[in-house]
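task queued by scheduler; priority normal; single chain, no ligands, no partner chains; default sampling; output format set to structure tokens
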Amino acid sequence: IILSYRAVFAVILLGFTLHWIPQQWKENIRGRYIRSSILTKSVLAIILFFLIYQMKSSVIQPFVYFQF
């Protein structure tokens, strides 16, 4: 099951990891992002946009009850 859904398990693991890291680390990362240049923020936004776009499904899945 893990090999078949490795992307799903990776996202779950990432979520748990982000939840369990100390609050001070999160504040440090947040502060570094705030202090970064507009170019760095733009590059990160573009990368995030393309990652989200790649995860988007090209076909809308019908509601499960409409299949019966």
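post-processing summary
- The helical segments are 6-20, 23-35, 38-55.
- The chain is about 70% helix and 0% strand.
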